[in-house]
Sequence to fold (231 residues):
Amino acid sequence: MIVLLCILFLWIFSPSFPTKKLQANMAQADEEDQKEKARKDYADFLEKVKKTVFIDNISPKATTSVVESGLQQFGNVVNVEFMPNYMIPYNIPQCALVEMEDQKQALKAIDAMTNYPFMMGGMPRPVRVTAAKVEMFCDRPAPPDRRKIRFRWMQPTDPHFHAMKKFRWLARRHTAESLAMIKHLLASDEELAKQQKKMLEANYEKLDLTEKHKRSLRRLTQLYGIDVDEE
Fold:
């Protein structure tokens, strides 16, 4: 009897006891659950992409409320996210991702803004609009079963060193061109803001002059007892 108990004790605490196999099965089940959750999260993200509109060349002075008011004519705006440009030293909006309530509203906005001028701040703005893509989202989840990307420093002896050096030069050139374009865009927006201010002041003067004429006309009609329909 004692011998049997010893054998049972050794079998339970031996490395081949089924508990290790059970732990392996549980770990595999947890991994499958994580993969299933990742697939669901990525599917939900793809649905969000379908409902999102990418707007480029917007005014640097644009705010969230300005963009929302411009797109509310096409449906309900769920979220507005300005995309930062890390290649310039200015923290100004130039493009944005606008999520609509459904894909139908997003397609309606794209069609209208492609064929007609987009009004922003009371003035037409030559924006470019397209359907959003997965690569445009900074907070996009990792796709399931993705391949790993490896990074390494290029050495002068590497056969692709000169090609990478050319890419770096092109990136710096693109940065300089983007900065020059942003400066030009800021100057254009300043000029546009001055024109809008002049138009508002002129319209206010016209409105004030009209009100003065109405008051003068009202006094004259009261003085001479003339019944005039103000409509």
